[in-house]
Amino acid sequence: MPHATQAADVAAELDTALRGGPFHVAxxxxxxxxxxxxxxxxxxxxxxxxxxxxxxxxxxxxxxRRPQRPESLRAVRALEEILGLPEESLIRLLADTDEPxxxxxxxxxxxxxxxxxxSGVLERLLADLDARAECGLHALGHHERIRIGxxxxxxGRESHHIVRAHRDGVDRFFAVHHGDExxxxxxxxxxxxxxxxxxxxxxxxxxxVLVAELLFDTRLRAGDTFLFRYxxxxxxxxxxxxxxxxxxxxxxxYALQVxxxxxxxxxxxxxxHQHSPAAPRSGRQELAxxxxxxxxxxxxxxxxxxxxxxxxxxx
Length: 315
What we know:
Elements: H1 2-20, H2 23-34, H3 38-47, H4 54-62, H5 70-82, H6 89-95, H7 112-128, E1 137-148, E2 154-165, E3 170-178, E4 189-194, E5 196-204, E6 209-220, E7 225-233, E8 242-247, E9 253-260, E10 268-274, E11 282-287, E12 295-300, E13 306-313
Parallel strand pairs: 1-9
Antiparallel strand pairs: 1-2, 2-7, 3-6, 4-7, 5-6, 8-13, 9-12, 10-11, 10-13
Helix pairs in contact: 1-2
């Protein structure tokens, strides 16, 4: 019974890959076990309302790329059902890959697991608020001010946005705050500071993700520019060591300023960039604290896809 033996071998390979990974080996084994060409897999995903190219699927199963964006993680969850796999079996393998990179040990900070979990939660929270996947706004400029308190905690942040509408009828923005490990988003406060007011707010305690609806004072038409400002009072977690801002498509200027309490100053600060949560950090550059205001800052003239941030070390 050569076919039965072959099928048993394929099933055993899949079982081993699902238990131990890595993700791309498990995905490749699952697709092989179902005997589906990638075009058929893509077709099935489209029936779930998920758009993924055949090239991306090929890269995923080769290990050349990893699913990272919320839409890609939705595709992975759909693949589990399409391929008849246990729920969370592939997502777990993505989250479990917190290994040292080829560039050396990953620096202290949020793990890849935390970003995977948070991105899935964010998608759910936005759905709960009936947020459209495409907000209708293009970022022309974004300035964030981060405050670190006396106890070295992320005390709060303020965001100033300059945007342009590219469709008619835009009247709101969904602000996202991801607190440090151990935070309590239910105790955070969102303040609408200029040209907006606070609408609905929801959060997820396990991941520390908070989403707030900011309602504009006007309904924008395509081409209109708009400025608005809001703040989040946090202060609910322990010692903070970095602030990271992720972005999707390329946009306008981004400035990040971190200000420290005079009674809690770090010994050194640096900037960094990451192409994705799973990628090694690059572009490290030391930053000097300003004398009077005890702050450091970075300016990105044009936002790139990926993540940029400031990290600091305590004594």
